[in-house]
């Protein structure tokens, strides 16, 4: 066993403070184990969200020593010596202690046209090239931890939630747009409503993704290229229509 000091944020939307706890931890403990030990042995009112403890449900996102991380994937013995500061993610409204209200992300997701397959295919099985499968599978690894949304400066510093859906929704869109069996055209929506132009490719989102999804290189940049191509084509078509209709 080893002793660790945790400084955990306690409070709600009205304000709060850091509280210190000392925890005896067994080898291999992660930050979530220490939070559970605090709840069990010292303070049952400490609120945190978790579900799988296997880095797969995306619920336990927090800022550990200022670094957005999953509490269940961050080992205590991998952190630098000294007190460990555990805070809620900042970009979304605080409910209590380590729990934030991330429902805004689901509201944006509802605005995205779902997978739309070509009815001409009928009951035939999908035949898709392996490289197309792999391209889309990368985006499907997302566990909706929203750590990428938490660090994106468009949402965090500039609070432009009315203008940009954020990196998590960009990779959802990329997964749909790059699926060879999807026939929906979302280009205008990606540009206007989802606001892909607000991303300036800082790649902060990629750095924190626990699934190592290459959000910008494989998702957002190709989306931008598609939208630009499509809008360029739209302009040419509109010009032709104008010319023909006089
Ligand atoms: S690369 Fe784009 S989506 Fe990712 S953090 Fe930067 S601005 Fe946000
Ligand atoms: S893209 Fe990565 S960081 Fe963003 S929500 Fe999905 S798993 Fe989390
Ligand atoms: S508890 Fe599920 S990702 Fe951490």
Please trace the helix and strand order, writing H or E for each element: EEHEEEEEHHHHHHHH
Low-pLDDT regions:
none
What ligand species are in this complex? Answer: iron/sulfur cluster, FE2/S2 (inorganic) cluster
Q: Let me know the number of strands.
A: 7
Report mean pLDDT, rounded to a whole number: 94
Strand residue percentage: 15-25%
**Largest β-sheet summary:** 5 strands, mixed
Helices and strands: which structural class?
alpha+beta
Question: Any idea what the radius of gyration is?
Answer: 22 Å
Gap between N and C termini = 82 Å
**Helical amount:** 25-40%
Strand arrangement in the largest pleated sheet: 2-1-5-3-4
What is the 3D shape? elongated
If helices are DSSP runs of H or I spanning 4 or more residues, what is the number of helices? Answer: 9
Notes on the structure:
The chain has 246 residues and is α+β, with helices and mostly antiparallel strands. It is built from nine helices and seven strands, in the order ββαβββββαααααααα. It has helices at residues 31-41, 103-110, 130-140, 147-151, 153-156, 167-177, 187-192, 204-208, 215-245; strands spanning 2-12, 15-25, 61-64, 67-70, 84-87, 94-96, 99-100. The chain has a five-stranded mixed sheet. A hairpin with a 2-residue loop joins strand 1 (2-12) and strand 2. Helix 3 (130-140) runs antiparallel to helix 6 (167-177) and helix 6 crosses helix 9 (215-245). The N and C termini lie far apart (82 Å). Bound molecules: iron/sulfur cluster (SF4) (2 copies) and FE2/S2 (inorganic) cluster (FES).
